[in-house]
Amino acid sequence: MKNSNHKISNLVSMLSKPFFMAFLALATVSCKTNKEEPLEQDEQTVSNDATTVSTLETGCYTFKRAGTLINFEITKNQNPVEGTLMYAISGKDKNTGAFRGKLVDDKLVGMYTFMSEGVQSERQVAFLLKGKRLVEGDGQLNDEGNRFNDLNTVSYSSETPLNKADCTR
User: Fold this and answer.
1) Which of 3, 126, 127, 146 can bridge 134 by disulfide, Cβ–Cβ 3.0-4.6 Å?
2) pLDDT tens digits, residue range 75-89?
């Protein structure tokens, strides 16, 4: 009888191992945490058919750190979007100018016309709207260095996110 109980115990043990391993794998996958920083409740915007849509607000979006200041004041948030953009990058010449572009879904793309060292220049800029934040895009430029080769390949992983802020004069 003791031998019979031992065989049954071994059989139950063998059958339960695959089930235990499957359960462990499922539990591990379902417990993974999302590394992306969640939006705070006040950063959430208007809901449209059960999807969250960001809204571009008039006012200032600013980045400031270690001697670098980027300020984008949106003065008109309907297409065409208009505003003033200023870059004061540490170790580089400051430039300020006008922005005019278009917001499509969560992408704001337009031309930045600015003065730098007494010379007027123009270049295309792109931003991704994420809640109350604008993330500047980076991508390969044309030979003149003033337009993106392909807007579909622009990367929005900027280390200089512009956060909605009070405008200071």
Assistant:
1) 127
2) 999 999 999 999 999
